[in-house]
Amino acid sequence: MPASPTASAPTPGRRERKRGQTLDHLAATAFALFEAQGFEAVTMEQVAAAADVAKGTLYNHFPLKEALLAHQFHAEIAQAMGADLTASLSAPEGFTARLSGWLEASARWCVGRRAYLPHYLRYRFLSLHPGDRAGDGSRSGMERLFEALIDAGQRDGELRADLPAAHLAALLQHLYLGALMRWVALPAQDGDSARLDHEFAAIVELFVHGAGRARNGA
């Protein structure tokens, strides 16, 4: 099966590549400081000094520490997706198995980043607006992944096709973020990965089968 057109993005030009490299450098520098000193302790001034840029340059790209964190997370997600998206779309298991596999991998990543997720989620929900100066900072790339998986499911006849894949992907993204919020609100403890797997399994069931009670014989 060919990869969905939503799985690929236009190749950026030279100026956009250079800007992307700058954003990546700033975010990676900030994240190294967060890991060494703790998120709350790091100041934007420290990030600018460590990245060897003027403070104004940093603020021009990232108005908040949370924006730096979001960019780092989104870069990690994009790297994890990589060429594996095409392989996932070609796998024979079907939409539910493909989505569940991606969410299991996401759960492992989230457990490793749990300490930062409250800051990240607040940024996602409180700072979403057009014209974000950090680029497409409100989008993690998971939307594109969900859209590609849904599009493939629609073409295979597994999912309803009366709503666009992008519309369904946006709804699934909200379920995904809601599951993360529920999990982050719980005290950290052993078995965190299993608990998040359970949250994600619930949203797969809800998305694929709905919340209606199954009728006898269904």
Features of this protein?
10 helices, disordered N terminus, 218 residues, Tetracycline Repressor, domain 2, Arc Repressor Mutant, subunit A, 2 domains, globular, mainly alpha, single chain
3D structure, described in words:
With 218 residues, this protein is mostly helical. It has two domains: 13-62, Arc Repressor Mutant, subunit A (Orthogonal Bundle), CATH 1.10.10; 65-209, Tetracycline Repressor, domain 2 (Orthogonal Bundle), CATH 1.10.357. The protein has helices at 14-37, 44-51, 55-61, 65-81, 84-90, 95-112, 117-126, 142-155, 165-185, 192-209.
The largest sheet is: none
The coarse overall form would be globular
Please state the average pLDDT score.
Answer: 84
CATH fold category name of the largest domain: Tetracycline Repressor, domain 2
Radius of gyration: 19 Å
